[in-house]
């Protein structure tokens, strides 16, 4: 990552933070895909990942008319909790690029892939799985934290896309102007996580046992 940063600064000059940051985000996504490809691929698991990705995309599509309200992030979180960090990252990143086929691809797509993927990955870490399964309170708190992380991270992209360099003044202005949407998104994550968790978890457990998916 450091090598890529140095190359980006040399090739694109220090002012081209948009290009450099995009390269860094893409590079950050590659190791998890490479690691997953190196595993013994289970076609049943791939189908399950595809179904969860389609479900997340459908959730984003069905609620697109309501600003900052979507069950997509909740489905990504639940995928990570139930199936582990790698699957959580894959569902998150694939949901971003797939849903953007409907909502529009652009330079922001790698940022969305990384941020949604990271939300699923963290939810799937063994110690996080244990915490999030304990009670709905932890699930609510993680949903809210995921909402703030996604909004704050994507506002970084917005600053780079407008100014081509990072500006604290611009960043804080964006955070303040987006506050109502960010708060709505956070509580949307918490609500849908609690609403969908038990039903999806039960169905996934049955599928894992029935089709012997490890």
From TrEMBL:
The chain crosses the membrane at residues 6-34, 46-66, 72-97, 135-159, 171-192. Keywords: Membrane, Transmembrane, Transmembrane helix. GO terms for molecular function: transmembrane transporter activity. InterPro entries: ECF_trnsprt_substrate-spec. It comes from the Bacteria. It holds the Pfam family ECF_trnsprt. This is ECF transporter S component. It comes from Enterococcus ureilyticus.
